[in-house]
Amino acid sequence: MMTAEERLMYQVMKAIYDSGIPIDFKGSMVLKACLLEAGYVEEIRHTVDIDANWYSETAPTAGQMTVSLQKALTNSGIDLEVSLYRMYGEGRSAGFELADRSTGEILFSMDIDVNRPVVPTQLYEIEGFCFRGVTPAQMLADKVSAISTDRVFRRIKDVVDLYYLSKAFIFDSAEIMLTLENSGRKLENFTGFLNRPDDLRHAYEKFRLTGDVEKPPFETVYSTVKAYIQDVLPQE
């Protein structure tokens, strides 16, 4: 179910949550926890990074972020070295690498958005690891928003994630629209998703699922997702 890397990433997320640093999580690690909590036990795609949001009154410096993260890990007995390789800026997240202290090998990375609009979160627990992450509705809203644009061909993982989510959550279009509105976003017209299925298939076929995770046929994923989100699609 969980790779050794993912277990270590959840340990890191718990350490950060326990430390009180103003960080909430999002992305694949939260998706995995949210699906497991909802009773979906099939293998889903694996990931090699942690995604998060940092909220604070003032903009944190590179040093403040690095020191806080390092301290959180050290206090939890996690022997990893944290280093910043990309500073955050307009439309760009801060990027951190976490490396094994003894070998220097980079094990995974962490992308942190700083002081973006606040989004609803909840507590998750997976195999005893507690952390705060975005709600399922927020996750759905983010993914539907991404595939409503022509970025869908670069964001095929969002189509795959919606396929997973369709197995565990009811799609409440009113809630999704409200969630989008609260984060200041609107849906675009789904032109790429609806009118260019062959290009989408091509992107899907290139998309790699690591390990022994089963990759369903494109038709299955596409038709399932299309039916799942039909309430927010333009009327044909």
Present the secondary structure layout:
Layout (H helix, E strand, L loop, with lengths): L3 H16 L3 E4 L1 H10 L11 E6 L7 H14 L4 E7 L7 E7 L5 E9 L6 E6 L2 E6 L1 H12 L8 H11 L6 H10 L8 H5 L1 H10 L11 H11 L8
Helix pairs in contact: 1-3, 4-5, 4-6, 5-9
Low-confidence stretches: none
What percent of residues are in strands?
15-25%
**Computed CA radius of gyration, to the nearest angstrom:** 18 Å
Shape: globular
Number of strands: 7
| Tally of individual helices | 9
Structural class: alpha+beta
State the distance separating the first and last CA atoms: 40 Å
Main sheet properties? 5 strands, mixed
- H/E series, N to C? HEHEHEEEEEHHHHHH
Question: How do the strands line up in the largest sheet?
Answer: 1-2-5-4-3
Mean pLDDT: 95
What level of helicity do the residues show?
40-55%
Structure description:
- By secondary structure, this protein is of the alpha+beta class.
- Helix content is 42%, strand content 19%.
- The protein has 9 helices and 7 strands, in the order αβαβαβββββαααααα.
In short:
The protein has helices spanning 4-19, 28-37, 62-75, 136-147, 156-166, 173-182, 191-195, 197-206, 218-228, and strands at residues 23-26, 49-54, 80-86, 94-100, 106-114, 121-126, 129-134. The chain is an alpha+beta fold.
What keywords describe this structure?
236 residues, five-stranded mixed sheet, 7 strands
